[in-house]
Amino acid sequence: MAALGALGAAGCSRVATASDVKGGDLLGRLRAAGVVRLGIAGEIPFGFIDTNGELTGEAPELAKVIFKRLGVDRVQPVPTEFGSLIPGLNSQQFDVVAAGMYVNPERCEQVIFADPDYQMLDAFIVRKGNPKGLRSYKDVVEKKAKFATGTGYAEIQYAVEAGYKESEILIVPDQVAGLNAVEAGRVDVFAGTALTVREVVKKSAKAEATDPFKPIVGGKPHVDGGAFAFRPTESNLRDAFNVELRKLKKSGELLRILKPFGFTEAEMTDLTAKELCGG
Fold this sequence. Notes:
The N and C termini lie far apart (40 Å). This protein has helices at residues 2-11, 26-33, 58-69, 85-90, 105-108, 137-142, 155-161, 175-183, 194-200, 235-251, 253-258, 273-277; strands at 35-40, 48-49, 55-56, 74-79, 96-102, 112-113, 118-120, 122-127, 147-150, 170-172, 189-193, 207-209, 216-217, 220-221, 224-230. The strands form 4 sheets. Strands 1, 4, 5, 6, 7 and 15 form a 6-stranded mixed sheet that branches. Helix 7 links the parallel strand 9 and strand 10 (170-172). By secondary structure, the chain is of the alpha/beta class. 35% of the residues lie in helices and 22% in strands.
């Protein structure tokens, strides 16, 4: 209900979208308004509202720094489900997706991405002791494990590519629901990002995280990268964002911003959106 309320409020304050400027003029309009609306999916540690009602997470905290440098002083969260982020962005419900979204060719057909601000491997939530010995999508298929992942997650396709039937995947809203499903015995395994999985099982007495691993994509081990997403018409804003992001990477400030959310040097990356979009 909170997400719906936020979306409704955002819908009443949409800025005009008509523009004759090549590459869009959203940055200028955001500067004039003094605020940028961030689409988040309530996923720890990527973008969420904390127990004090404050917006935080790796993407929102990075957004605060970059947009301030771009002349936009405030950020406003617009919570929604992960699977609604791209539709919400393209229907003007918010200005940018700040949710640690993976860059992949399918999404690149719908939005334009900044270069990744982090890279990430996958991991599983399993019962304590990992009784089925599940350490890869191949294991899940071969051992006929009951498999779950999140709404709109890239892990859906990784499981399908390994041979799991998409119709048999349990889709849940997020990693907390995934943990609950494993703990309750409704599924044997939930797949997510290594960092998300590691964080969500910390207080669980029944479940644990597996070691991180690279999913197989096109027959090769694959590393994902998460980035901010923009409407295809707003390349000027995306390009300006990238300029500031590169400065933060070069200075080391990016790691300092992301470190409180569990990111390490191993998650820093020079991957580009072009590479992950498929060239």
